[in-house]
Amino acid sequence: MSSPYNPWSNVAPIDVTQTRARLGSFLLGIARLAAALLLAAGGAARAAAQPPATAGELRWGGDPEGGSPYVEADPLDPSRVVGFEVDVAALIASKLGLTPRFQPVQFASIDASVKRGDFLIGLGGIEDTPARRATLAVTVPYYEFREVLTVRAGDASRFRTLADLRGRRVATLGGTIAYEILLASHAGGGAVAVSYDDDVHPYSDLAIGRVDAVLLDHVLAEKAMRRERGLVTQPDAVARGHYVGVLDLKNAALRGRIDAILREAMRDGSLESIFRRWGLWNDDQQALYTRVLGTIAPAPGATAQSPPGAPDGPAPGVPSTAAAVRRYLPALFRAALITIVLSCLAMALAIVLGVAVASGRVYGGRVLRSLLTAYVELTRGTPVLLQLFVLYYGLAEIVRLPAFVAALLGLGLNYAAYESEIYRSALEAVPKGQLEAARVLGLSERQVFTLVRGPQALRLALAPMTNDFVALLKDSSLVSVLTVVELTKQTQIFAANLGSWVVPGALCAALYLAMSLPLARAARRMEAKWKAPTS
Amino acid sequence: MEGAHVMSGLVLEARGVTLRRGACEVLRGVDLDVRRGELVAIMGLSGGGKTTFLRAVAGLEPFDGGTLSVDGVSLTAHAAPPPDVLRALRRKVGMVFQSHYLFEHLTAAHNVWLALVHVHGVPRPEAERKALALLEQMGVGARAGALPRELSGGEAQRVAIARALAVDPPLLLMDEPTASLDPARRDELGDTLERLTQSGRTLLAATHDDDFVRDYADRVVVVADGRVVEEGVPAAVLGSPQHPATRQLLSQKKRSNGRGAGS
User: Fold this and answer.
1) Which ipTM was obtained for this model?
2) Cβ of residue B95 closer than 8 Å to a chain A Cβ
3) Against a cut of 0.90, is the pTM above it?
4) 3-state DSSP call for residue A167?
5) Which of A67, A251, A339, A389 is least surrounded, with the fewest CB atoms within 10 Å of its CB?
6) Which of B118, B145, B160 sits opposite A533 (nearest CB)?
7) What is the spatial distance between Cα A25 and Cα A393, in angstroms, rounded to a whole number?
8) Structural domain harbouring A131
9) Is residue A141 within 8 Å of residue A244, measured between CB atoms?
10) A306 lies in some domain
11) Burial letters A452-473, b for 16+ CB under 10 A, else e
12) Domain B2-92+170-262 falls under CATH 3.40.50.300
């Protein structure tokens, strides 16, 4: 494994203007996304070709989007990955006499993926939590991190601790210990948690003032400080946690062997040299290793572990499923409310814009028609996820849209393109003869549209519109990338907390159905009503 | 305004109307006068320009040369008529299309009163009363609440006529009025149209149906190759056709009748 000594070499240089640096970090994010997709595609092809338990290989999973210094696509060769987790995986593999083979996976899916056997061990800044301990075979902790607060330099003196951030928006990764800490803080009247899907945008949004602080691992904070200027990380840790590897429970025996390898690596200094190479070594690690080596090694195959790994921050205990459901149900309902409100508003926007675009394309002049056609083709031809990113992060320098507004605009503008096509074909389906009959009666063009053409087109459009609304309801889950915690995101957070997808997934599906089924029913009723004679 | 035209007695005056569609000259100089209270039939082979002429009179299609005047409203060649001329024309001309083109989302009665309320500003209760009366007069009063797709072809035609008459136009254009009617229905229509002409309405109908023309038209005009080639009283024109086009028209009709009887 090649590991550059300067892990920040691919970060935008500091002497450019802030604007360019931020734009650079956005583009970097896109480039990383692309690299991750490339890796994922390759990985998927390989996974399809080979079972996970190929002889002679240690298949390990991580999220290349997690980025430096954990796991990231090698800037020099995007088909390979580099990072300290890559080195840890290589160490473990070599001691097991195997070749490491990387399997890219989304961070939030590592637990579920290791359980279904996509790979033997998951690595990559995976936090040691009670939920993981209950549902997975967890290795001994091999790195201790501090949860630290990062704030804008101007706020360094007034926002020193979480307590100083009462009612303020604090960013973090959803479904992490830090997120739980913020939720607990909010329940006690403290900071408001803002959930992100990646570790770049919390800091860029902090720099431009969308949030007032970021609570995350010091590894991420230090990385961000090199990228963003004008930020300060408070020295005191809000909490401490540990990185571990995760295996399926049925691989507890292998976990025992890996634990022995990690202990040996702590003793012989090979872990230390890895972390030194990545600039991550500090006194906390020596203390952690002393504690880990001091505890009695559990017998191979045992699942229980004593707590050197347990975080000493205010993380929750392992909840029973029933208790967890009771605890999360209100949050799920709130998230469902956000989903339905967002979907209804976005659909309303899409309908209004769609009618306008369709009318312009049917009635407008050549220039207007080609402009509107370009809008429709651009919107339909690019992923809505990319459009959301551009709207929220890409345009942040020009207009700083609140997350909900950006989500609403993104979905509304995207669906308007689809709606406009429905209306256009519906408008053109109304027989021209009826329009002429209306004109001969003396109706103005406007009246022909509002009294004859529009109402009939609307009836024709109703069924495909209902279809689109149900699709929009589900597509609204994409806006979690803009920090809006809607139903799917809340379910992910719940599942990460519980360590299982079964109950949260079922609840989530039930809530989506509870929203979409009445909608379909209402549409059928309206169709029936329109078919009946009216006076 | 009305007075001058009553004196002249002409509701429609067409002089040398030409109309081109791309390279194809559809009308090559149509001259036609229609007097108040007349039922004039336009006959001719398919593609001879009958329907196109009606559409030009209704202001649905701009024409390229000549003049058209409907009850004092003059249309000029080349351009689409300006809005005020078009508005005036709409009050003079009603049209019943071959496919009726009723508004599918509205009931029969609503089809009839729509323009009264939205174009002529008649209060809705009054407009509804008038619509019902017109539908009664056309013999479809019982179908007032039905949607167009629930009507038979004959019923739909009567509703379409009521809709055209609601705004009281002096000239009513009809495209193939008997196309979808069986003989009994055809006679009912003929009687209805006679009543209309007796009450001073002027009718111009494009048709293939020489029996209908013989029985009900006051005058017949034969159009061929975009020109009027023969005109006169139906009995004379159809009894002893002078122009080859008229003879061809009638012989075609006989052949198709013969086939119809034989099958």
Assistant:
1) 0.91
2) yes
3) no
4) coil
5) A251
6) B145
7) 10
8) 18-140+244-294
9) yes
10) no
11) bbbbbbbbbbbebbbebbbebb
12) yes
